[in-house]
Design goal:
The protein has 193 residues and is of the alpha+beta class. Strand 7 and strand 8 form a beta hairpin. The chain is globular. The relative contact order is 0.12.
Length: 193
């Protein structure tokens, strides 16, 4: 037996002894099962709570002053259920695991979001509670979180805001104020990666 064959045999036995399973063909690894240290040491993968094969929605939170996507399970694929899941997730904020990966929310804890109208491709969100006292950057990120999360839903392209039934101005990513319906394009520059 050559020294190369012996070395290969020793390595094979060592791997077998370590509990590393042997497979004859490559098998894909589910993204959620890859340790975050291996997937991206500088920025760990964005964890999500979605279960494969179940309806899910995309929600945006903040990491390093950029908006990052995470997933949440939705009870069904109906627009109402998905929209309710997005609003609840935005108000609940990032999970403990997401927070451990540096993900936060720019939304005030006291701010309440209520969908008051769905008009074809536009959703009107009523704001209530405290939303004052934040920096312009935090306000832009907060509005971006809401708009990017809602417009990620199928058939929704625009979001408008109101307070006490009256349209309110919202900050776009470029710092401009508007009462016009907002789109994902208005906040595209805030997205991470």
């Amino acid at each position: 037996m050559t020294s190369r064959c012996r070395l290969a045999l020793v390595l094979l036995l060592a791997l077998a002894g370590c509990g590393v399973p042997m497979q004859s063909t490559p098998v894909p690894i589910e993204p959620g099962r890859i340790p975050t240290v291996l997937s991206s040491p500088d920025h760990p993968s964005t964890p999500g709570t979605a279960i494969p094969g179940r309806p899910a929605v995309q929600v945006n939170f903040v990491r390093d002053d950029r908006l990052v996507k995470v997933l949440r399970d939705a009870p069904t694929t109906t627009l109402t259920d998905r929209l309710n899941t997005v609003i609840e997730a935005l108000q609940t904020g990032p999970s403990t695991g997401e927070q451990a990966n540096g993900i936060t929310s720019a939304l005030e804890a006291e701010l309440r979001l209520t969908v008051v109208e769905i008009q074809r491709n536009r959703v009107v969100v009523e704001l209530s509670g405290d939303s004052e006292g934040r920096s312009a950057t935090e306000n832009v990120l907060a509005v971006g979180q809401i708009v990017l999360s809602i417009t990620a839903l199928p058939s929704i392209d625009q979001v408008s805001f109101s307070r006490d039934g009256t349209p309110v101005e919202a900050l776009q990513a470029d710092g401009a104020l508007t009462t016009e319906p907002l789109t994902a394009r208005d906040y595209a520059t805030l997205r991470s990666g």
